[in-house]
Write a structure and sequence with these properties.
177 residues; alpha+beta; 3-stranded antiparallel beta sheet; 6 helices; 3 strands
């Protein structure tokens, strides 16, 4: 155990970051205003994307090579991981594109998904002439079709959980009080 102070607020494993993703998804699900929806969606995208970095850090050398095609500390690990595991982690490329966009404003490295964008809006539900519900909504738009972005994040969480279980990275959590 290291005595060097960390810079992760006590989060130590990819399981910890996965649990943060679930928290971000719940914030998005319960958000009512446009800003709270935007902020929760931003956080969920970044968390869903960066679980990969934490997983790569945790892997031993042989698992790293098997999953990325390169040794630890070598360039190309992220791209190699996505190429080799993209079928099992189908939402990862979208989450990484969104995360890099929200962090850096524009994509400066890697391919740009020209057919994908995100946004947030207010939705109105009606019953005849009467509004019955008004709520903020974040979406991902792919090839001109809008989808609730929470579905992407929820799917990504399920994909990460399965991946971590298969790879033996899942750390069982004690029950909460």
């Amino acid at each position: 155990m290291s005595n060097i102070p960390d810079k992760t607020f006590g989060l130590k494993t990819s399981t910890d970051l996965y649990l943060k993703l679930l928290y971000d998804i719940e914030r998005l699900r319960s958000a009512v205003g446009t800003k709270s929806v935007q902020y929760a969606a931003f956080d969920a995208a970044v968390t869903a994307s960066h679980i990969l970095d934490w997983i790569l850090h945790e892997l031993d050398e042989s698992a790293h090579v098997r999953l990325t095609g390169v040794g630890k500390g070598k360039k190309g690990a992220v791209g190699g991981f996505i190429d080799r595991n993209g079928g099992m982690l189908g939402g990862l490329a979208f989450c990484r594109q969104i995360a890099n966009s929200v962090k850096h404003v524009v994509i400066t490295m890697g391919p740009v998904m020209e057919n994908m964008s995100t946004g947030a809006t207010v939705k109105f539900e009606r019953d005849g002439d009467r509004f019955t519900n008004v709520y903020a909504h974040a979406y991902i738009k792919i090839d001109g079709q809008k989808y609730p972005v929470i579905e992407l994040f929820q799917s990504m969480a399920e994909q990460w959980f399965l991946f971590m279980e298969i790879e033996g990275l899942w750390v069982e959590q004690p029950p909460e009080d």
